[in-house]
C-alpha cells in the first residue's frame, strides 16, 4: 500500500533527478566538435598530413594553417600549389618544420617552362645552406666557343645549338659572362647533388623548404589538436572540452587520454 501511495508523488522527482543527471552528463561528455573534426587522421601518398598542412578536398581549413592547403591529387600525390607552379610533397619533417618538394612538371627544364620559385615569404623559405643551380636558356656562346662550356651543358637531346641550355652552380665565376649571353636565367634549389649526370633529374629530385607556422608541439603534447580560428585569425588548440589559445588544461579535461594524470 505504501508503494502505491508514494509513487505518484515521487515519480516527478525521480524523473527530474534523472533528467538533470542525464543532461549534466551529456554536457560533460560532449566532446567539442572542432576537436572531433580535427582528430581524423589524414594520409596522402603514404604521408601523414596534419597541422600545419591540411588536405583541401577532405579537411576543414580550421584543422590547418592558412596557405598550407595541399591537394591530394589522384588520391595518391600531395601537391602544394605555389604562384609559379605545383610542387609534389615528398616528405614532411614535422619536428623540424621542413618538407621536401619537387616540381610536379617533370619536364620543366628541357621544356623551358621552369620559373624561379615564388614563395609566400611569411610561410616558406629556402634554407640558406641549400645549393642552387642556375639554369640558363638560349645561350649564344659563339664568341667563346661551345667546347668551353660543354661540362655545363644540359643535355635535352635536341642538339639545337641556338637553344643551348646551361647549368652552373650559383657562385660560379663564369656566371657573369654566361648570363649576359643567355635570354633567361632561373635559380633552381637542389637538395641532392650526388650523381650529376643529368641536370633535369637532379632538379627533379627536389629541395628542402622550411616553414613558418605556429608550433603545434605544446598543444599536441597536452592532448589537443592544432587548428586555426579564421574569425580571430589566430592559432587554436582544439581540446576535448573547447578550443583553447595554446594548450589543453589537464585539470579541465575529463578525456580518457588525461585520466592518467588524475
Ligand atoms: C591522375 O589520374 C588521371 C586519370 O586516371 C591521369 O590521367 C593522370 O595522369 C593522373 N595524374 C597524376 C599526377 O598521377
Ligand atoms: C588553397 O590554395 C590555393 C592555391 O594556393 C588558394 O587559391 C586557395 O584559396 C586555398 N584555399 C584555402 C581554403 O586555403
Ligand atoms: C651570337 O652572338 C654573335 C656575337 O655577338 C652574333 O654575331 C650572332 O648573331 C649571335 N647569334 C644568334 C643566334 O643570336
Ligand atoms: C633551332 O631552333 C630555331 C629557333 O626555334 C629554329 O629556327 C631552328 O630550325 C632549330 N634548328 C634545329 C637544328 O632544330
Ligand atoms: C657576352 O658575349 C660577348 C660577346 O658575344 C662578350 O663580349 C661579353 O663579355 C659576354 N658577357 C656579357 C656579360 O655580356
Ligand atoms: C630569377 O631570379 C634571378 C635572381 O633573382 C634573376 O636574375 C632572374 O632574372 C630570374 N629569372 C626569371 C625568369 O625571372
Ligand atoms: C570551432 O572552432 C571555431 C573556430 O575556432 C569556432 O568559431 C567555433 O565556435 C568552434 N566550435 C565549437 C563548437 O566550439
From TrEMBL:
Catalytic reaction list: L-seryl-[protein] + ATP = O-phospho-L-seryl-[protein] + ADP + H(+); L-threonyl-[protein] + ATP = O-phospho-L-threonyl-[protein] + ADP + H(+)
Signal peptide bounds: 1-30
Record's keyword terms, sorted: Glycoprotein, Membrane, Signal, Transmembrane, Transmembrane helix
Domain (Wall-associated receptor kinase galacturonan-binding) ranges: 38-102
Major subcellular location class: membrane
Record-annotated Wall-associated receptor kinase C-terminal domain positions: 171-242
Keyword Lipoprotein: no
Superkingdom of the organism of origin: Eukaryota
InterPro entries per the UniProt record, alphabetical: WAK_assoc_C, WAK_GUB
Lipid bilayer topology: Single-pass membrane protein
Pfam families from the UniProt entry: GUB_WAK_bind, WAK_assoc
UniProt cross-references to PANTHER family, sorted A to Z: OS01G0690200 PROTEIN, WALL-ASSOCIATED RECEPTOR KINASE C-TERMINAL DOMAIN-CONTAINING PROTEIN
Protein name: non-specific serine/threonine protein kinase
The organism's taxonomic lineage, starting at the top: Eukaryota, Viridiplantae, Streptophyta, Embryophyta, Tracheophyta
Amino acid at each position: 500500500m505504501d508503494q502505491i501511495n508514494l509513487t505518484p508523488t515521487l515519480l516527478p522527482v525521480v524523473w527530474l533527478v534523472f533528467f538533470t543527471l542525464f543532461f549534466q552528463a551529456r554536457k560533460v561528455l560532449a566532446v567539442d566538435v572542432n576537436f572531433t573534426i580535427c582528430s581524423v587522421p589524414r594520409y596522402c601518398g603514404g604521408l601523414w598530413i596534419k597541422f600545419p598542412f591540411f588536405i583541401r578536398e577532405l579537411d576543414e581549413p580550421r584543422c590547418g594553417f592558412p596557405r598550407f592547403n595541399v591537394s591530394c591529387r589522384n588520391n595518391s600525390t600531395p601537391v602544394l600549389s605555389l604562384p609559379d607552379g605545383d610542387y609534389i610533397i615528398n616528405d614532411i619533417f614535422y619536428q623540424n618544420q621542413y618538407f621536401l618538394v619537387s616540381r610536379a612538371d617533370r619536364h620543366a627544364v628541357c621544356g623551358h617552362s621552369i620559373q624561379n620559385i615564388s614563395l609566400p615569404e611569411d610561410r616558406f623559405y629556402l634554407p640558406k645552406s641549400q645549393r642552387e643551380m642556375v639554369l640558363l636558356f638560349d645561350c649564344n656562346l659563339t664568341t667563346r666557343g661551345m667546347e668551353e662550356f660543354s661540362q655545363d651543358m644540359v643535355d635535352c637531346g635536341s642538339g639545337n645549338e641556338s637553344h643551348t641550355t646551361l647549368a652552373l652552380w650559383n657562385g660560379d665565376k663564369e656566371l657573369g659572362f654566361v648570363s649576359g649571353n643567355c635570354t633567361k636565367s632561373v635559380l633552381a634549389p637542389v637538395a641532392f647533388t650526388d650523381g650529376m649526370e643529368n641536370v633535369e633529374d637532379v632538379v627533379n629530385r627536389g629541395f628542402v623548404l622550411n616553414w613558418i607556422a605556429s608550433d603545434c608541439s605544446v598543444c599536441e603534447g597536452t592532448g589537443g589538436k592544432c587548428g586555426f580560428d579564421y574569425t580571430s585569425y589566430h592559432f587554436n588548440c582544439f581540446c576535448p572540452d573547447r578550443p583553447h589559445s595554446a594548450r589543453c588544461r589537464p585539470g579541465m579535461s575529463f578525456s580518457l587520454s588525461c585520466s592518467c594524470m588524475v
